[in-house]
Amino acid sequence: MFGLANPDRFMRFTRPVTPVLWALAAGLLLAGSWFSFTVPEDYQQGDTVRIMFIHVPAATVGLMAYGALGVSSFFALVFRHPLADAAARAAALPGAVLTALALVTGSLWGQPMWGTWWVWDARLTSVLVLFLFYLGYMALRASIDDEQKAGRAATVLGLVGLINLPIVKFSVDWWNTLHQPASLLRSGGTSVDPAYLTPLLMMMAGYGLLFGAIWLTSIRTEVRRRRVLSLRARAARLA
Predict the structure, then answer these.
(1) Taking Cα atoms as reference points, which of 83, 88, 89, 91 lies closest to residue 1?
(2) What is the largest CA-CA distance in the chain?
(3) 205 Cα distance to chain centroid
(4) Could you tell me the sign of the dihedral formed by the alpha carbons of 43, 45, 47, 52, in that order?
(5) Which of 5, 18, 6 is nearest to 221 (CA)?
(6) Fewest C-beta atoms under 10 Å: which of 85, 149, 153, 182?
(7) What element of type H or E holds 211?
(8) Cα–Cα distance for residue pair 119/78, rounded to 1 Å
(9) What is the DSSP letter of 49?
């Protein structure tokens, strides 16, 4: 990992890896989507259960994306490495989109199940806070003209947001909530019906690989952008 902290090594390593991730993500998402429409209806939820194949992967990977942002922010703050800062910046937008998708699909799923679009439930509220951290991170970076100052300020906010991750994960265990408890990773094994488990895992893997592909592509783009800015600044000094 520390070897890849060198931008040149990172660019060489990720050049062949990135298109593979895109291809694998596309294959898994297509296959998972097809399987999700062929599974039988749930005896209680009917066709509404199919929202699970979008909502659960989006929520899970949105949480993981903020973990990537937070860890990258730590390395950027401690080691002052520009590639770590680029990685944190690149994780913000896809993470925010996934979290927003989780909130929207959760409301669509919750309305027929709970009889309401939204409740100030511990899980729902903590995921909303996660989304606000994403928005705050991006807004802070955009509001400061000096990129170095913007990066340092956003890095601190990104690290503060890590406090919310265990709250999102364990909120259904710590508080009495409407949201169902963990179904996949729990003691005693999964409670998900085998008919739904395979497409769900395929979609989760597809979402994870899609985030990885978008993340690497965005980091590579950010590295190129910073190199262009550096060359322009050098040319301006020489002129």
Answers:
(1) 83
(2) 73
(3) 13
(4) negative
(5) 18
(6) 149
(7) helix 194-238
(8) 39
(9) G
Q: pLDDT tens, 203-229?
A: 999 999 999 999 999 999 999 988 887
**How far, in Å, CA of 25 to CA of 18, rounded?**
11
CB atoms within 10 A of CB 185: 9
8 Å CB contact between 88 and 76:
yes
DSSP string, 81-150: -HHHHHHHHHHHHHHHHHHHHHHHHHHHHHHHHHSSS----HHHHHHHHHHHHHHHHHHHHHH-SSHHHH
DSSP assignment, residue 163?
A: T
Show the tokens assigned to 8: 């040149």
The answer for residues whose C-beta is within 8 angstroms of residue 7's C-beta and 6 or more apart is 82, 83, 223
State mean pLDDT over 43-50: 79
